[in-house]
Amino acid sequence: MTGFDTVLTVDWSAAKRKPRRQSKDAIWLGVARGGTAQQQIYCRSRQEAEAWISKFLEEEQAAGRRVLAAFDFPFGYPRGFARRVTGSDDPLALWQWLEERIEDAEDGSNNRFDVASAMNRLFAGAGPFWGKPDQKNWPDIPYRKAGISYEEVAERRSADLAAKASSSCFQLFFNPTVGSQTLMGVPVLQRLRLRHKAAVWPFEKVETAQAVLAEIWPGLIEPAVKAAMAVAGPEEIRDRVQMRLLSQALGRLPAEELAAMLAAAPEAAQEEAWILGTGYEDRLNALAADEPGRLAPPPLSNDCFALPAGVDWTPVDDALQLLKDRLGPVTGGETVPLADALGRVLAEDAVAERANPPLPNTAVDGYGFAGGRAEGPHVLPLVQGRAAAGVPFDGAVPGGSAIRVLTGAALPDGVDTVILEEDVSTDGARIAFNGPLKRGANTRKAGEDVSADEVILPAGRVVSPADLALAAATGLAELTVRLPLRAGVLSTGDELVEAGEPAGKGQIFDANRPMLLALMRQLGFVPVDLGKAADDRESLRAHLDGAAARTDVILTSGGASAGDEDHMSALLREAGAMQEWRIALKPGRPLALGMWQGTPVFGLPGNPVAALVCTLIFARPAMGLMAGAGWQAPQGFEVPAAFEKRKKPGRREYLRARVRDGRAEVFKSEGSGRISGLSWAEGLVELGDGPGHIKPGDPVRFIPYGSFAM
Ligand code: AMP
Ligand code: MG
User: Fold this and answer.
1) Which residue's CA is the closest to the ligand 1 atom numbered 15?
2) Is 491's C-beta closer than 6 angstroms to any atom of ligand 1?
3) Given CB 3.0 to 4.6 Å as the disulfide criterion, which of 148, 166, 634, 636 pairs with 127?
4) Is ligand 1 within 6 A of the CB of residue 508?
């Protein structure tokens, strides 16, 4: 048997239409080719998913590729169910029966409870379908399961028992709504099957079919999903991870092993269907797992930079929101000693091993004893010995006696209160002091700072020197951090020569690359120098081809608009993954955002001023998300302007600026070729999208370079 070229996995949903923003419990698809999870696709509705899958099957078949399309809901019902409904044991006759009856609108409203009611009426007694949104409607569907006998048909299929799935295809409401997913999914399967001549496993012969539909269940690879979620952090969408790993596992299976799994369906599966991979869970989990070291990142989808159609100039905030919604962490994790953790991004929450302080101790040098003391003079005998930090007193201090204690010392048994040495007189055998003194005075309680098992640093945090103190104090010697984001920088343009090289007439020195490479380092990324490419498509292609494997993200400058020499955008367009972002921003030109062999590319304008502003405003927060550090908006503050300026509405402007004597000065020229102004400035003044006439003394927003971590 030949293997499959492509694996598609489908995480189905019975829910209503979902928001534009990627969310959980929606329909998610996973695509793997050659054992690599290539993309995960988010679908807002079942119609959208059906159209996508249909087009995909068509294209794969046209290209001569063999496809396994695996769906996560039951393909069949327990034995005897089909006959009661259609008069036949053939599960595909039941598919047709459901396809003819189920109606599903684009907004997600549908008639599944009516169809289930009709089926319930065919059975004696209550059920088998149960669960609904309210007690009143659909009298033929019990609200709860109690009282349904499951004598004529079983509650679960052999497949569910074998896979240890606790769900039932008869449960329509309350999680898990497998029953509803099946009712809303089977009609889609039936249409796909007929439209694309796909063979349905295990009901039909699949050996020679070019497209095969099979049932899977992500629960089989739960251990691998759990591990990947721990690395990805809480912001990652679980469904996306499931589809990535499941497509990866099935895609990596050698043909013979997959053939064995397909052959493993027992007799009962001819009517009830079977979950592919049941009995092979360990193998699937091993194949699903990301490689250690650099864990395979969840690749971004090719259309992740798509902008809403029909918008001419996109406001800055909308463009930022889009990036925020679409991008996520792409780097794996590793565990490093504290000494190597500075500046790295935490991949998981750091949890205190031990309380701080670990034991109750004294906050001052003085004398310790039990209990507080009332107002008035007190004299206490001293016990022999003392307690110091790291040198505890081993023995108990009898009630009414005191002991010498030094700052940081664990409180000896029998001591809960300390008096400052400055407040005491002593003859070596006794101490005398005046009350009052509260019980517990001058001591620190165990765990008063941090208790054991407390989260001390959240996933996504960039580790600071102070964080290292906290981690060390609470018993951590290592932290699990993300692999640093590898950021490639490429300059494009025939006119560019390297600083230090002889420059001919009409040539200029490449200023962007040293700037952007240095900036990448300052932002905590690994700068990858991709050199410079001439203004021709082949040269550019050669540079990018080599780069995609060595980088997690690529910044290019120059050639990003739609002009004749703008090969960057032409090349990305040719790859089918280029979006021209026309952002209402000055300084700036259209950005070319795209994917090159799975690596996101930010095509920046060539002008150094525009290149830096676009990097700081757009690329930096986007890269922060990819690096796992979350979205970091720069912090600005208002200062009075030291300048006058009239501004047109309809775009946001960033001026090179610095603060002197508490007022924001701007550079003498707004010319975007003026590199000296970038260097003169210590930050940017941000002017809002609306019109404006700024006069000296008016408040303006100043964002220091430091707020961009620059
Ligand atoms: P482009 O976006 O390619 O049309 O370039 C716009 C302007 O920026 C042109 O004047 C280019 O010469 C200049 N430019 C492009 N790349 C660089 C670079 N790496 N360093 C300095 N100037 C550049
Ligand atoms: Mg150019």
Assistant:
1) 606
2) yes
3) 148
4) yes
pLDDT at residue 45 is higher than 70? yes
3-class secondary-structure state, position 223: helix
From 635, 585, 634, select the one nearest 605 (Cα to Cα): 585
The string of pLDDT tens digits covering residues 222-260 is: 999 998 887 777 778 899 999 999 999 999 999 999 999
Six-digit token pair at 242?
């499931």
DSSP letters spanning 458-506: -TTPBP-HHHHHHHHHTT-SEEEEEPPPEEEEEEE-TTEE-TTS---TT
CA dist 414 and 419 (Å) reads: 15
- Express the helix, strand and coil content of the chain in percent, nearest 5 each: 30, 25, 45
Q: Could you tell me if the CB of 493 is within 6 A of ligand 1?
A: yes
Tell me the residues surrounding ligand 2 (ion) with CB < 5 Å.
493, 558-559, 606
pLDDT band at 485 (very low <50, low <70, confident <90, very high): very high
Both structure tokens of 706 = 């430091």
CA distances to 91, 200, 601 from 595, in Å: 43, 35, 6
pLDDT tens, position by position, 132-154: 998 889 999 999 999 999 999 99
SS3 (DSSP) at 538 = helix
- Cβ burial of 504 (10 Å; 0-12, 13-18, 19+) is exposed
* Cα of 39 from ligand 2 centre, angstroms: 32
Measure 306 CA to ligand 1 centroid, in angstroms.
Answer: 26
Beta bridge partners of 69: 8, 213
Query: Is residue 508 pLDDT above 50, yes or no?
Result: yes
* Ligand 1 lined by 590 (C-beta under 6 Å): no
Distance of CA 67 to CAs 28, 32, 193, 204, Å?
Answer: 18, 10, 13, 16
Integer Cα distance of 8 and 20 in angstroms? 22
